[in-house]
Amino acid sequence: MSIRFRLLASFSTVFAVAVVLFTLISYLLSVAITGDMKSVSRFYKIHYSLHPLTDEEETIFLDLKYMAKQDSEQLTDEALLAQYDQQLKMVQAGLFVRRDDELIYASPSIGEPEMRSALPAYDAANLSIRSTLNVGNRFFSYAKFDFPYPDGSMGSLYVMKERSPFAELVRTLLPILIAVLLAVIVLTGLLLYRYLTRTMIRPLEVLKRSAEQIKEGDLQFELKPHSRDEIGQLSQTFEEMRRRLNESIQLQLQYEENRKSLISGISHDLKTPITTIKGYVEGIRDGVADSPAKLDKYVGTIYAKVNEMGRLVDELLLYSKLDLRREPYSFERIDLAAFARDAAEEAALELEGRGVTVDLNVMANAPIPVLADRSKLKRALDNLIQNSAKFMSKPEKRIEVRVAIDGRHALLEVTDNGPGIPAESLPYIFERFYRGDASRNSGTGGSGLGLAIAKQIAEGHRGTIKANSIAGEGTRMTIRLPLADNGNEDTE
Ligand SMILES: Nc1ncnc2c1ncn2[C@@H]1O[C@H](COP(=O)(O)OP(=O)(O)OP(=O)(O)O)[C@@H](O)[C@H]1O
Ligand SMILES: [Mg+2]
Q1: For the CA of 477, the nearest ligand
Q2: 3-class state of residue 399 by DSSP
Q3: Where would you find this protein in the cell (predicted)?
Q4: How is the chain split into domains, by residue range?
Q5: Which atom of ligand 1 is least distant from the CA of 451?
Q6: Model pLDDT for residues 431-469, shown as the tens digit of each residue
Q7: Please, which residues have CB less than 5 A from ligand 2, an ion?
């Protein structure tokens, strides 16, 4: 059974029960208030007995009553009576005057033959001057006054107004009442149904559609919860699930992409030296290297290429070990300033011959403690210095190694006055195999793994690496490492 159907069924039940209850309650209420059903109609009569006439009719009645008291002879003047009757007719009432047993004036607008016998008897004391009477099916309320005519005959005057009888009133009003009642119940039911479908069924349908989308493999959408209720929470959880699933699939795709590009990078970088070696070996075999000098040159080139390949394979091995977290780190507490000084001195000696000066700049008086794996950090720093030296294009070649403290971190920076890195390349230089010069055969050589390895090492130290560069002016590479706490000397 669908929720929609269940809702409809429960509304219909509530509707039926409401109708039955309403009938019962209204019956019981009227009995409880009035004692029995008939007294409701008695109430209706009493109300009109107390107020049979409206104010306007009452004024005319009082006029006529005054006349009856002062000069009752006038109440035989038919023309005068007709005039009063006319006034009463305008307000839907009528006049009756009786002398002894004879009706000397009967309002033609009400005119009822049986009225004469229905009119109450003469009552000289005028005990009851307002009341109601039934003539056939018709119901009247009236005010009356009894008076003596000058000749002693009994006179009565009645200002009479027709009212709808109670039974008829109920008969005309009941269908309207019941219709209104049913309309209210149906309308309330419809509104509730609409409200519930909007807040429950529609969100569920959206959820169902989303689940189908996921089943079809489409995860590129967003499910927005429309409320905070249980269904809203369900949508939220569902959206969270979609997001995580999407993330893990994207990650999987990226791994796949990485694997492909790694293989293509390796094959490309190995193929170039192999082609060269093959060419030279063929040269020797075919006797092209016919003199000892030529042979020496050929063998020298082959040896250099084999070295290049060996270095590339070493770098690849290191990178992949770092990437797979298979390369163990042996952390120790070191003074970064002393460490940088040693590295800078070594580099200065090595690069002296190429006309490159390496300066050291330590921005602290005390040692700068960091937890580091000496050999790996040295490898990262060397990669930075080698890059600065390798890409240097100016006649005056300067490299600065700088150490500083920044809050709770230590900074290890290598700055050069080289060609700089174009802004469009900056985001990619830490990716493996990325090299600024698209041609891999240029003089600078290299596999494009240097910065990728430096980044792995910086992150292995729970640090970061970033590059700042202005094309034409120089480059600054910054490794940021957390300072070792004084109390925390544990190695990891
Ligand atoms: N100091 C620098 N000045 C100018 N360009 C730089 C500098 N350092 C890095 N680059 C650019 O970033 C690219 C990536 O550097 P990375 O060290 O990863 O590779 P590589 O030096 O080309 O090769 P490898 O280090 O493996 O021998 C370089 O090819 C170069 O274009
Ligand atoms: Mg490099």
Answers
A1: 1
A2: strand
A3: Cell membrane
A4: 44-163, 231-321, 329-482
A5: 18
A6: 888 887 654 444 556 778 899 999 999 999 999 999 999
A7: 387, 450
